[in-house]
Amino acid sequence: MTVRKTYVAIVAACLAAAVPAAAQSLPKPASVEVVTVAGLGSATILTYKVQFVSADPATRRVVLEVPSGERWAVVAPPLVGDLSYFRVGQSLLIRKLPGVVTAIGKVGKGQPTEVLNEVVVNAGLPGLPEGFGLREITIAAPVVSVDPAAGTVSFPGPDGYLRTLKAANATVLADLQTLQPGATVKFTYVEGLAINAVQ
What's this model's pTM, rounded to 2 decimal places? Predict the structure, then answer.
């Protein structure tokens, strides 16, 4: 399979979309790979083989389809560029690297689920595999579940899909211990994404 072009900046073809009422799970990945990332330890790369179905230039809503026929939609940010580049039926390889929660705070004026800030960053997860971009998101979101022993918390991201992420440091781990399912919290987290057009 020949990689034609890597969309590092697409770090976010995931999203600032209107969010469903309940968190959803992503479609089943085509493959799963465990890598070691500095500052994170073992991390799982989820790879999805999809086809481009459609895009609405006005809303930047993009629909993707996995081989099983399951579809899901994301809103492509301006960094993705001109959506007319993509062709109906074009094959894409999406690699997703769940990151870490770097801060937990009070919501303030944020409403669930509301993106409070989103930036592309060049540091924060050193040792990312080649071709990955990294974004940092601050979001007001409801706590779905907490696993203090594993040091993880689950909450819906801006695309409505569930994230289960580790605490990045001892401070975040301590804050995580106080969380209760159902509470709306301000999470700051980083995650990696790479999208390749393939033949």
Answer: 0.69
> Across all residues in the chain, what is the average pLDDT?
77
What is residue 172's DSSP assignment?
H
CA 105 – CA 102 distance, rounded (Å): 10
Could you please report the per-residue DSSP string of 101-136?
Answer: EEEEE--TT--SSEEEEEEEES-SSTTPPTT-EEEE
Q: Which two tokens stand for residue 54?
A: 């459609």
Q: What is the mean pLDDT of residues 85-112?
A: 84
Amino acid type, 167 = A
Half-sphere exposure of 10 toward its Cβ, with a 13 Å CA cutoff? 26
Distance of CA 158 to CAs 48, 99, 116, 117, 183, Å? Answer: 19, 15, 10, 11, 17
Q: Within 10 Å of residue 58's Cβ, how many Cβ atoms?
A: 6
**Cα(157)–Cα(161) distance, integer angstroms:** 6
- Which positions ≥6 away from 95 have C-beta within 8 Å? 45, 46, 47, 48, 129, 131, 132, 193, 194, 195, 196
